[in-house]
Amino acid sequence: MLQVENLSVSYGGVQAVRGVSLEVRQGGITALLGANGAGKSSTLLAIVGAVRPKEGRVVFEGRDITGTPPDKLVVQGIAMIPEGARVFARQPVEQNLRLGAYTVRDESVYRQRLDQVYALFPRLQERRAQLAGTMSGGERQMLAIGRALMSGPRLLLIDEPSLGLSPLLVEQVFDALAALNRESGLSVLLVEQNMAQALEVASRAYVMQSGRIALSGSAAELAASDEVRKAYLGM
Q: Which helix (H) or strand (E) holds 22?
């Protein structure tokens, strides 16, 4: 579904991403893993056109989308959830979800997607009139995911969904991503530092170090790798 080929990103004279190639298969969860500063977020920003790559290209469903702005990618079927569970803090939950569906013109489609989000995250329905900025970190992450789903994406890119959340809420968020993939076939590129958790839900994974892909393989292979466990999982 998504192919990233020899992608490089520089900020001034600093090269953050060095010749990264990866793929996201249709109907799968692919994890892009690594420590803080490894180049994961820069790779994601280049994929969605928020940063112009120095080299390389990005292909989605056979079309070259390199440098296409994020708002144009939404129409093509790609939604991104940035790091930090960003929401419209002064707007109620349901208005946040409505804003996520800005490309939807059919009210019946909007209501159907809203019902699907509420079924996935019942807490959002309970708090649909609450201002988003007054919610907990876990609730805001659920809202950020729900808002992205309102556009009806075929590919979801999510950056560090576990950041700042308690272990229980991390479990809930990852369970929701696994359920989305299992029940709707949504393809996911998951960028994470929490490798143990990510490898539980992913089918394939890549590990970044110093802007490069250091390791890749099935999630099971990487979870069983002594090198990965010692370097990243503390085992």
A: strand 14-24
81: Cβ–Cβ under 8 A, 6 or more apart, which residues?
A: 144, 145, 148, 156, 157, 158, 159, 161
Largest CA distance in the chain: 52
151: DSSP letter = T
Per-residue pLDDT tens digits for 173-217: 888 889 889 988 999 999 998 888 899 999 999 999 899 999 999
CB 178 within 8 A of CB 201: yes
Q: Which amino acid is at 189?
A: L
Task: Just give the CATH number of 2-233.
Answer: 3.40.50.300
Backbone CA torsion sign across 227, 233, 234, 235: negative
Task: Kindly report whether the global pTM for this prediction surpasses the value 0.85.
Answer: yes
Q: SS3 of 212, please?
A: strand
